[in-house]
Amino acid sequence: MAKDNLEDNLVIRTMKGDLARLRGELELKDKERKEELGIKKKEEKLPPKEKLPPIEKKPEAPPPLGLPTFERRPPAPPTPSKPSVTPPPLLPEAPKEKVIPPKPKISEIPKVLEIPKVPEPPRISKVSKAPEVPKIPKVSKPPKAFKIPRTLLLGGIVVALGLAAILIYWFLFAIPEPTPTPPSPPTPPTPPQELIKPAPLIPVQHQIVIELEEGQDLTTELKGEIEEGVHSGLSQILVYKDSIISLSLDKVFEEFELTVPQPLINNLNEDYTLLLFTQEEFLTTTEAPNRLGFITEVKSTTVSSQIMRIWEDTMAGDLERFYLIPRGEQATEEFSDNTYKTLDIRFLNFPMRDITIDYALYPEENWLIFTTSRQFIYRIIDLLEEGGIEEL
Q: Which pTM does this prediction carry?
């Protein structure tokens, strides 16, 4: 019984069985590894190796004497380890010759399945570019404030204090006090400018100066001058207003509020003499015998004669304020002619015979002579003929 169990447990191991088992394990591991990774690679075909000549089997040595012979059995597949009874120690076998095991024949590795080619995706046409978004301008950062170094600031303060100290010392101690200048004497008041008094065209005995202020009436001021002084004969009247030069004749007409034709004013020259005549004879007992008149230089006596003839129609009314006393209505409707010595006169009478309009042209001097009484124009013609007046 013990002999049968020993035969069952004795297995003769050969090199060929080990190689087959080893090759099966390698193939199994390779297959598991490929399945795990899921990658199948094409392996290169190895060229067939030259087959070695079969090894000649040598006759087995006869078993030792006294031991039973056993048939060789093919190696059993590996079984899981079981607790087995340790076999009894075998008797030493006779030495065997070394057998060179043949190299294991490596089976050809199956070809890896080729992976089908994936078709290329259709080409996508170029997509039009999206409109560019306008770039937002970068906000410029405010410039950094310039920082003055502390040492430089302190140095500037020290220099400024030093300059201030030098200036204070200079103004307090170095500059001498200015000597007081004597006060300048008061300027004397400017003397009033003297009035320019033009010379009369004919000799006169007196001069009456009237300086008009704003709002004063020339007729009223003239009456006041006449009442204050006793005048006789001929007097020159000089009228001033805001000037040292006497008024021109057309301005005198305006101050008397007379209506004079403009053509006659245009024919006047600058030289003239405004006259006041205190006549000796007068036919009224209540009014003063003072009459007004003038002598003026004209540009043309012929033109002046024509203008005066036209003006005769309204002359009495236009010159009403030139009389210092009421003269009444005109006694004659038209002007008449008269001759005194060698001079022609045009005249118009009023109810009182010592109040008239008499005018004449003096061609030798281009003068126009105008008076308000007959005795007045006769006195002027006498002076022109005699060449002077009698001193009274």
A: 0.52
